[in-house]
Design a protein that fits this description.
This protein is an alpha/beta fold. The protein contains 14 helices and eleven strands. It has helices at residues 15-23, 29-47, 55-71, 113-120, 163-171, 187-193, 223-233, 278-293, 307-326, 330-335, 338-345, 352-373, 411-415, 445-458; strands at residues 50-51, 81-85, 124-129, 176-181, 196-199, 215-220, 263-266, 297-300, 378-382, 420-427, 433-440. Strands 1-3-2-4-6-5-10-11-9-7-8 form an eleven-stranded mixed sheet, with helices on both faces. Helix 5 runs parallel beside helix 6 (187-193), helix 9 (307-326) packs across helix 11 and helix 9 crosses helix 12.
Length: 469
């Protein structure tokens, strides 16, 4: 294949561009993979976004992809570099789940459903991405991995728990990165890292470890690349008992929706947790004006949550984490991040009634979110109440007693099983990214992606991507 004569760095090309250039024989997956590896090797000493980084295996996959393109046997994602969050199984790769308590985790016996779909479609897997202990922080702080940092400002964290995924996407470690989300863990790092993060409808992307609210989805630099990833990873897998029926959705048909005539509900106040930072509010208000000027009808929606809902969920998750940690022997328990140990200890002595009440708040959140969207086509609003916070902090509050204070905008849509996306909306005066959240009706993933794409078209041009290393 001939080298594409372009000044663009190959590591920054979108997946949609790569597939077009590969099809024209204007670019090789091997060239692109080498560029992505070089980008990662340059930035990793500062970012620490990757785990189980396997350049030689990636190059071997790229060479196999190049051969398929030359034979005319290309697959839907052939030659596209991807990363996969550590808790999404990859055959032969251990899953420590971000904690030193599992530093001797055995190699995974097989691929998770999303990993399998990416392999089947020819994606080039570069590495796993980092996460905090057990995925229970919106932070890049881990007892197992080095501290993951935000490419826009190395003194800030990327968010989490898909910490490495968000940082890798913003830094240009290839175009597609898979994360997971049970309370905001795709959308929060997407917002804080200035990338797109799509949390699908529950069951849309099959999992082999399904749980209340848990989803897997893509973090990318564009909505089109997120849709491209969804086309592959949403294919069914019978290992997920909560999986949706197979559906042939028009994932790549993104341009058929305009804001004009849409009814949008604006959720500006969360009702619980941290107050909305003025800098984030200003960016979201500007985004809302753009949608209104484009013809959408925007109406304010009362807060979805109450403090009782968020506190109840927090207690339920503490109790679940406490059971996992207390089952460890004393040595392993001591290796868990102290913040996580202290947070989980709050669930150790709960009564059955208290645990049941906490669990019932997930249903209360579901009902509130579904009632809120009923009069509207979509709900919009902030992803996070605050800008990116110091990298060394476990959460925006850095307080185990208020560990969930920042997820009040995101977690309702996990509980209600609705699709929701974070799309870059602008920057704070300090140059830190802010994302706009768009949530749709249950199962309307394509609609959410379409509105996100429409917003991409009308928003002002964003700043150049950060350069690290």
């Amino acid at each position: 294949m001939a080298t594409q004569p372009s000044a663009a760095n190959l590591a920054d090309l979108a997946a949609t561009e790569l597939l077009h250039l590969y099809a024209r024989r204007a670019l090789s997956p091997v060239e692109v993979t080498r560029a992505v590896i070089a980008r990662a090797e340059t930035a990793e000493p500062q970012l620490h976004a990757l785990y189980a980084f396997t350049p030689e295996a990636a190059l071997a996959a790229a060479r196999a992809s190049e051969a398929r393109w030359m034979r005319g046997e290309a697959r839907p994602l052939d030659g596209v570099p991807v990363t996969i969050k550590e808790n999404i199984a990859r055959q032969g790769v251990p899953m420590p789940l971000g904690t030193a308590a599992r530093d001797d985790a055995p190699p995974s016996p097989g691929d998770a459903p999303a990993t399998a779909r990416l392999r089947e479609d020819g994606a080039v897997i570069l590495a796993a991405t980092t996460m905090p202990d057990y995925g229970m922080l919106s932070s890049g702080l881990s007892s197992f991995h080095p501290l993951t940092r935000n490419p826009w400002d190395l003194s800030r964290g990327p968010g989490g728990s898909s910490a490495g995924s968000g940082a890798a996407a913003a830094a240009g470690y290839g175009p597609i990165h898979l994360g997971t989300d049970i309370g905001g863990s795709i959308r929060l790092p997407a917002s804080w890292c200035g990338v797109v993060g799509h949390k699908p409808s529950h069951g849309r992307v099959p999992l082999d470890n399904a749980f209340y609210g848990r989803c897997a989805g893509p973090l990318t630099r564009s909505v089109a690349d997120a849709a491209l990833a969804m086309r592959s990873i949403s294919r069914p897998d019978d290992r997920d008992p909560t999986g949706l029926p197979p559906a042939d959705l028009p994932w790549l048909d993104l341009d058929g929706l305009e804001p004009k005539g849409l009814r949008l509900g604006l959720v500006m106040e969360a009702g619980a947790g941290l107050p909305l930072d003025p800098a984030n509010r200003a960016v979201i208000e500007a985004a809302v004006r753009l949608l209104a000027e484009a013809g959408a009808t925007v109406e304010p929606v009362p807060a979805l949550l109450t403090p009782e809902m968020l506190d109840g969920l927090d207690l339920f998750w503490r109790q679940r984490a406490s059971l996992d940690i207390e089952a460890l022997d004393e040595d392993r328990r001591a290796r868990v991040l102290p913040f996580i140990r202290e947070w989980a200890a709050g669930g150790r002595d709960l009564t059955g009634a208290a645990v049941f009440h906490g669990m019932s708040q997930m249903a209360a959140m579901r009902d509130a979110a579904l009632a809120a969207i009923r009069p509207f086509d979509f709900l919009i609003g902030p992803v996070s109440p605050n800008p990116p916070f110091p990298a060394e902090h476990a959460s925006p509050t850095n307080d185990p007693a208020r560990a969930m204070a920042h997820i009040a905008y995101t977690v309702p849509f996990n509980m209600s099983e609705q699709p929701a996306i974070s799309v870059p909306a602008g920057f704070t005066p300090d140059g830190l990214p802010v994302g706009l959240q768009i949530a749709g009706r249950r199962f309307d993933d394509v609609g959410v992606l379409r509105l996100a794409r429409a917003f991409e078209r009308i928003r002002p041009a964003l700043r150049a991507w950060p350069v690290v290393g």
